[in-house]
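User: Design a sequence. Structure:
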C-alpha cells in the first residue's frame, strides 16, 4: 500500500521541487501543493491541474464492486480473475497509469494474450507512424529554454492541453535573446503577447487552405522552391525559419485531421531541410493520461509500440486493426479491461462486453453496474508514488504521494490478478 512521502504529510505543503503534477505530460515539478482534506495548487493557475485536484476532493466511498454490488477487494479481484480467465481475446484499454502500472499490466496481458491500446491511441498514431516511416528530429524543453530563437506552433495553441507550456519554455537566465513565437493556423483562443511575456514577439497567422496544404507549401518555401502565387505570409515565415539559429516546431497530433501522419511527415521533411544549414527540432505535444509512459514501457518491454497483442503466441502490432474503437465495434475482442487512474475524465467506453475497470474513484458511479467489475485505484502523485515519462520522452520523473487513501495501485492490482491467474487460487497475492 502507499506511503506518504517525506515532507509531504497530510495537512502540510509539498514545496516546489517536491511535487510532480501528473495531470498532463509536461509533469511540472516547480509548483507547491497544499495537502490536507483538500489539495490546493500554489504558484500556478493551471486549470487542468486544478480540475484534477478538485476531482480528488470528497472522493467518497472507495469500494470495489462486482455487477454493481459493493464488495471487498479480494472478492473483486476473484471476479476479475475469473472473467479474464474466461476471455478468449481481451483488450486492455485506457492504460492511464505510471511505469510500474504499465509493467504489471504488460505481464498480465502476456498471461492472457491481450491487445493493448491507450485511450489516446488514435492521437498517438501520427507521431508513431512518422517515427516508423522516417525517423524523428525531436527537441526537449531544456533545448527550447536554452537555444530556441523561433518557436512555430503549427495548428495548435499549445496551451489547451498543456496550460503551462509557455512558462516551461521561458528562456534560461543569461540566454542572449528571447524567442519569437508564431502561431500558424492555431484557431481561436490563441495566446497573445500578454500570455507569453518573455517572448520577443508573438504573431498569429492563418493562411487559407487546410493543414496539409499549409504545411506542404511552407515546406516547399523552406526548401527554396519557387512557387507561383505563393502565400506571402507563409513566404515570410519560411524566410524567418531559414534565418533562425534554432527553430522549434510545436505540433499536436491530436489536433490533426484524419491522415495526420502526412502532416507529421511533411513537418519532418521541413525540419530535415532546415538542419542542412542551421538547427531545428520538433516538440510533440501529446502523451497525456500516461500515454507517453504506456507507449514507452510497451516499446522497451516488447520492442513494439501500443496497438500490439502480446502473449504466449508472440507479439504482433497492427496500428489500424488493433484500435480500441474498432475492436469494440466489431466485437473482435470479448472483454475490456480499462485503466484510468489520473482523472474521472477518462471513463470506459460503453460496451455490452464484460468490463473490468481499474479506475479513479470518481468513476465509481458510472462503472458500478451489471457486467462490470470496478476496482478504485490510487493516482500516482496524489495517493501513490510512481514514475511517468515527460512529453519530450527524455526524462522519467518520480512522483510522490501526498496522502494515503488506502487505495491499491494499478501495479498492485495487476500483480494480484497475475497471481490468481497463474496459480489458479484466489487471494494468494493480496493487493
Ligand atoms: S501544465 Fe500540466 S503538468 Fe503543468 S501544472 Fe498544468 S496539468 Fe500539471
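Assistant: Done.
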Amino acid at each position: 500500500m502507499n506511503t506518504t512521502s517525506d515532507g509531504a504529510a497530510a495537512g502540510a505543503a509539498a514545496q516546489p521541487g517536491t511535487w510532480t503534477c501528473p495531470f498532463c505530460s509536461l509533469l511540472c515539478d516547480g509548483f507547491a501543493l497544499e495537502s490536507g482534506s483538500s489539495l490546493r495548487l500554489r504558484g500556478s493557475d493551471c486549470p487542468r491541474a486544478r480540475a484534477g485536484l478538485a476531482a480528488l476532493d470528497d472522493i467518497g466511498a472507495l469500494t470495489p464492486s462486482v455487477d454493481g454490488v459493493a464488495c471487498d477487494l479480494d472478492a473483486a479481484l476473484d471476479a476479475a480473475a475469473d472473467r479474464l480467465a474466461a476471455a478468449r481475446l481481451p483488450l486492455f484499454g485506457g492504460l492511464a497509469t505510471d511505469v510500474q502500472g504499465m509493467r504489471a499490466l504488460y505481464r498480465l496481458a502476456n498471461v492472457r494474450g491481450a491487445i493493448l491500446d491507450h485511450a489516446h491511441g488514435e492521437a498517438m498514431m501520427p507521431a508513431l507512424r512518422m517515427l516508423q516511416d522516417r525517423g524523428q528530429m525531436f527537441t526537449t524543453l531544456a533545448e527550447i529554454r536554452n537555444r530556441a530563437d523561433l518557436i512555430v506552433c503549427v495548428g495548435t495553441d499549445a496551451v489547451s492541453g498543456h496550460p503551462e507550456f509557455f512558462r516551461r519554455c521561458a528562456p534560461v537566465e543569461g540566454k542572449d535573446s528571447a524567442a519569437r513565437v508564431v502561431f500558424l493556423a492555431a484557431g481561436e483562443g490563441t495566446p497573445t503577447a500578454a500570455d507569453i511575456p518573455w517572448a520577443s514577439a508573438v504573431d498569429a497567422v492563418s493562411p487559407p487552405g487546410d493543414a496539409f496544404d499549409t504545411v506542404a507549401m511552407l515546406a516547399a518555401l523552406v526548401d527554396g522552391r519557387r512557387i507561383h502565387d505563393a502565400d506571402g505570409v507563409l513566404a515570410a515565415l519560411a524566410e524567418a525559419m531559414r534565418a533562425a539559429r534554432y527553430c522549434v516546431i510545436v505540433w499536436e497530433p491530436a489536433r490533426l485531421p484524419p491522415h495526420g501522419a502526412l502532416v507529421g511527415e511533411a513537418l519532418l521533411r521541413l525540419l530535415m531541410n532546415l538542419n542542412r544549414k542551421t538547427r531545428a527540432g520538433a516538440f510533440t505535444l501529446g502523451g497525456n493520461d500516461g500515454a507517453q509512459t504506456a507507449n514507452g514501457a510497451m516499446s522497451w518491454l516488447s520492442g513494439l509500440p501500443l496497438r500490439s497483442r502480446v502473449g504466449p503466441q508472440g507479439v504482433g502490432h497492427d496500428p489500424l486493426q488493433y484500435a480500441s474503437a474498432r475492436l469494440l465495434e466489431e466485437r473482435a475482442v470479448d472483454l475490456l479491461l480499462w485503466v484510468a487512474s489520473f482523472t474521472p475524465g477518462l471513463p470506459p467506453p460503453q460496451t455490452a462486453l464484460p468490463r473490468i475497470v481499474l479506475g479513479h474513484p470518481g468513476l465509481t458511479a458510472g462503472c458500478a453496474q451489471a457486467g462490470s467489475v470496478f476496482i478504485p485505484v490510487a493516482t500516482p502523485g496524489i495517493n501513490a508514488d510512481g514514475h511517468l515519462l515527460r512529453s519530450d520522452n527524455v526524462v522519467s520523473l518520480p512522483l510522490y504521494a501526498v496522502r494515503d487513501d488506502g487505495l491499491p495501485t494499478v501495479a498492485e492490482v495487476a500483480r494480484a490478478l497475475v497471481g490468481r491467474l497463474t496459480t489458479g487460487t484466489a487471494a494468494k497475492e493480496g493487493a
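The pocket of iron/sulfur cluster is lined by residues 21, 23-24, 26-28, 44, 46, 48-49, 162-164 (CB under 6 Å). The longest helix spans residues 260-274.
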